[in-house]
Each structure stands twice: as C-alpha cells, then as structure tokens.
Amino acid sequence: MPKLWNETIQTHRQQVRDAICDTTAALAFEHGLRSVTMSQIAEQTGIGRATLYKYFPDVDTILRAWHARQITTHLQHLAQVRDHTTDPGRRLGAVLHAYALISRQTRNHVDTDLVTFLHHDEHVAGAQQQLHDMIRELIADAAEAGDVRDDISPDELAGYCLHALAAATRLPSETAVQRLVTVTLAGLRPPV
Questions:
Q1: 23 exposed, middle or buried (CB, 10 Å; 0-12, 13-18, 19+)?
Q2: Same domain, 156 and 168
Q3: In whole angstroms, what is the distance from residue 159 CA to residue 149 CA?
Q4: Terminus-to-terminus CA distance in the chain, angstroms?
C-alpha cells in the first residue's frame, strides 16, 4: 500500500481509539465504573460493537488505555514546561505549578472505585517514579545554583514537594493553587 494510505489508516485508527477511550472515561465518571457496558460505549461512540471489540476486549482495558494516555500527556506537558526555561529556580517553580494545576484538575474524579481501579495499575507506579525523578533533578539543579537548600537530599525534597502539592486536588481555585506552590517553594529555600 502507498505510504499516504497507511498513514491515513493509522490516523483513522488512532482517532477511533481515542474516541472510544474518551467516551468510556466520560461514561465511567458520569455513571460509575461498573455501570458502563460495551454496548453503551459502541452506541455513544457511534461505532458497531464488532468494531469496538476489534480495538478493546472489555471496559477495564479501555479505561486503562485512557488513563495511560492521560498520564503520558501530563508527563509530556511537564517536560515541555521544564524545557521552556533555563533558570534552575524558575524552571523548578514552573514545573511544580504545572503539576499542582494538573492535580487540581483531577479533583472532579470523585468515583473512588474508579480512582482506585485506575491507580492500581503498573503504569501509574512507573509514571510516579518518572515524576519524582524529574522533580529531584530540578531540585538538584536549583540547589547547585543556590536557589534551593542543599542541606537535605534532592530525593527527600522531591518527596516533600509531591506530597505537599497533592493538596491541590482539594483547592477551590487556581489562585489557591498558586499560594500552595508559593508555600511549597518557601520550604525549599536555603536556610539563612
């Protein structure tokens, strides 16, 4: 087959896959994890059930694929924010702010069964480690530049930041998120 044809087919398949994932996630958040059926997904997506089964064997697999895509998108966004500036202190602050905003966006995920199901997967542990490593490296760079304390290991400080910013899920506004980031960064300042 010609290259253009192959690219068009791949693009179409990815669009169908994304539509299936997005529809399934929306249904799960609206009706609950165990209330979603493959028939509902096919109907809402506008594809036949046979086509749906060509892409995914069950609802759980669809939700895992959706969540993996979300996590990848978040990590890519944080990497873009990190790479946008070269000043170590500002770069750290920008990434922490972006992470806190992402955390706040997840506050609408109130179905505890769904959240538990999605966060029990292996890809979450790997993503959490990637995030921790990114923050640790940013802290180490900022400490070397004198912007962050160096009397505590970057690994411990990364844990502090991630735990502190987890509170963003309960904050009512972006302004509150900014205050939380400011307080978190204050805890990283070198001792006087």
A1: buried
A2: yes
A3: 14
A4: 68
Q: Which two tokens stand for residue 38?
A: 């493959």
d(CA 45, CA 38): 10
Same domain, 81 and 6: no
What is the domain count for the chain? 2
What string of pLDDT tens digits covers the 192 residues of the chain?
Answer: 455 555 788 888 999 999 999 999 999 988 888 889 999 999 999 999 999 999 999 999 999 999 999 999 999 999 999 999 999 999 999 999 999 999 998 765 555 676 667 767 677 888 999 999 999 999 999 999 999 999 999 999 999 999 999 999 889 999 999 999 999 999 999 988
Q: How far apart are CA 96 and CA 75, in angstroms?
A: 12
Which amino acid is residue 48, in one-letter code?
Answer: G
Looking at the structure, do residues 40 and 118 belong to the same domain, yes or no? Answer: no
Q: How far is residue 126's CA from residue 111's CA, in Å, rounded to a whole number?
A: 23
